[in-house]
Write a structure and sequence with these properties.
Blueprint lengths: L7 H10 L23 E2 L2 E2 L20 H39 L6 H7 L7 H14 L6 H12 L6 H43 L4 H27 L22 H41 L1 H5 L12 H8 L6 H18 L6 H22 L9 H11 L2 H13 L2 H4 L28 H16 L1 H10 L24 H18 L6 H9 L22
Antiparallel strand pairs: 1-2
Helix pairs in contact: 2-6, 2-7, 3-5, 4-5, 5-6, 6-7, 6-8, 7-11, 7-13, 8-12, 11-12, 11-14, 14-16
């Protein structure tokens, strides 16, 4: 049962003396309850009050779901998203396998200037013959680099005409590898969009009772899934953990460390992915606007719509259909939060190795702020009144981003090729390069040592956060600011009702009373609704717990 109090004082007293749980109120140690136990019963049932969420925050169609049903559906949703991520992993493993073939054929660390000098930069005699001999070995991933450097020079100088028989396969591999790399960057964004839509469907299937719970769950699921798809998948698909502290993970790819191949393949695709992500807010706006224009033109008739003819013509049969067609789109708060979270986590994780991700993240946040500021003001439908749980969940998730920075930064700073100028002997270019970088703290030196201590300090601080907070409060070095009371001078309930809402409510009550004989107001409440003058500060959202008062219903 939902009860609306006329004053804030009455509400606070009710929650204080009739709490659902004692931990919901801060009572004194020597508290004596002035209300007798028999006075707390209504029709023989003990009355307990719990703070209700905002009326516009309730999902009425899910009020019947029980905690057990929500738990079972949550498990089903979790299995569903795991299947989607497994399919995404299989797809990217296949794509990375295709791109790694070109890297094994044409290693990016081949020094072509030395090979060109060996043949005195003469591309028409012995160099061409040697390239012809090296071609089958290159196809077998055992080339010496002569075929690669010869065809690379021919392609760069535009002299491939007449060399089709020699360099045709190189040109095909070069074009295919470039397309695969670009498709990988775009494919990550597309898969993230698919994961987003699937996550929304799965969370809505669970049946949370409030918009805040549902939005927070969608935000968390999309954030985890898209971060895994963006930042973790590419790291796993071609990684080689043999010889490291993670050797128990069966990853036997070709990349053992952040070497030239990693920066050429993974880092390049990651930067392009984040660049596409930074401008996606504009693409999303354009796509939504285009769909709205198409639906409105189909409703009015293309001729009337595109010529801006003044007409009342519409094919909508109900008012709600008309509102859905001509109102702005629904504000997807969860998707915006998840985009920001994915950007933060990906930038923190790889920012030390790819510093350009930080300015890209700044551009992303600026674009999100600009588009959302304008769209919320002029285009989106009015969002529901969310509870504080959504913002709290976002802040709790955000505070763990430095953990990704310290963990991956510890590995980056231990790179012996970059910081120690140590390059192990490589016998074959088509096998994993040994790096002598295993990740154990006692084997690291240089910049990795302070990063390791920062990592330990951060983990300790996060694990002991509550304990340290209690110690600071006990020593009077901090205070709890969660229950700051602010007098907003709002007046009582009836004084905060908007005039148009008051008139609508009075008309509905009069009609129900006269025609149906149904009264939902007592005499005092009805008179207060009719006579009390409203103030300047009024409620902006749903005013009561009547389902029809919510614009979404």
């Amino acid at each position: 049962m939902f009860i609306t109090f006329e004053t804030q004082e009455a509400f606070e007293r009710g929650c204080y003396y009739f709490p659902h749980h004692l931990d919901e109120v801060n009572r004194e140690f020597d508290f004596v309850d002035p209300v007798q136990e028999d006075e707390k019963k209504i029709l023989g049932t003990k009355m307990e009050l719990r703070r209700a969420t905002e009326p516009g925050n309730i999902l009425w169609e899910n009020r019947h779901t029980t905690g057990k049903e929500i738990l079972i559906r949550s498990l089903v949703a979790g299995v569903g998203i795991l299947i989607v991520l497994a399919m995404s992993l299989a797809l990217f493993i296949f794509m990375m396998a295709l791109t790694s073939v070109n890297q094994l054929k044409y290693p990016p660390d081949t020094i072509c200037s030395d090979i060109d000098q060996l043949f005195n930069f003469d591309y028409n005699s012995d160099y061409e013959k040697a390239a012809e001999k090296d071609k089958p070995f290159t196809e077998a991933q055992q080339g010496t680099g002569i075929y690669q450097c010869y065809c690379s020079a021919m392609y760069a100088s535009g002299l491939t005409e007449g060399k089709e028989d020699t360099c045709y396969q190189y040109i095909v591999d070069l074009s295919g590898g470039y397309l695969l790399t670009e498709f990988l960057s775009v494919g990550i964004t597309v898969v993230n969009m698919i994961i987003r839509d699937i996550s929304i469907v799965l969370i809505e299937f669970i049946g949370y009772h409030t918009e805040t719970e549902q939005t927070a769950a969608i935000m968390s699921l999309i954030t985890v899934a898209t971060f895994f798809n963006t930042a973790i998948l590419m790291l796993l698909t071609n990684a080689n953990t043999e010889g490291t502290m993670l050797s128990w993970i069966p990853l036997r790819g070709t990349m053992t460390d952040l070497d030239l191949n990693w920066y050429t393949d993974i880092a390049d695709a990651l930067v392009w992915t984040m660049l596409i992500n930074s401008v996606y807010v504009y693409l999303g706006f354009v796509m939504q606007a285009a769909m709205m224009v198409v639906f409105r033109s189909l409703d009015k008739g293309c001729k009337n719509f595109w010529t801006c003819a003044e007409t009342d013509q519409t094919k909508c049969l109900t008012i709600q259909q008309y509102v859905n067609t001509y109102a702005g789109p629904v504000h997807l708060m969860h998707f915006k939060y998840a985009t920001a979270m994915n950007t933060i986590y990906t930038t923190f994780m790889y920012g030390l190795a790819i510093p350009v991700l930080f300015p890209i993240a700044f551009i992303t946040f600026f674009n999100i702020y600009l588009v959302e500021k304008l769209c919320v003001a002029y285009w989106y439908q009015k969002p529901p009144m969310y509870g504080p749980e959504l913002n709290t969940a976002a802040l709790d998730m955000m505070r763990w981003a430095p953990l990704a920075f310290f963990i991956f930064g510890y590995w980056i700073m231990g790179n012996k090729q970059i910081f120690n100028n140590t390059t192990p002997y490589v016998e074959y270019s088509n096998v994993a390069v040994p790096t002598e970088h295993n990740g154990w703290p006692w084997n690291e030196n240089g910049p990795a040592v302070p990063m390791f201590f920062f990592l330990c300090a951060f983990v300790s601080l996060m694990c002991l956060k509550k304990f340290l907070g209690k110690c600071l409060k006990k020593c009077n070095l901090s205070q709890d600011t969660d229950e700051i009371e602010v007098d907003e001078q709002l007046g009582n309930y009836f004084e905060t009702l908007p005039n148009h809402t008051r008139k609508n409510w009075l008309a509905t009550e009069a009609n129900n009373s006269n025609r149906l004989g149904i009264k939902t107001f007592g005499v005092g409440a009805y008179e207060a609704l009719r006579t009390v003058q409203g103030k300047t500060k009024v409620m902006k959202n749903t005013i009561n717990y009547n389902i029809l008062s919510n614009p979404l219903y």
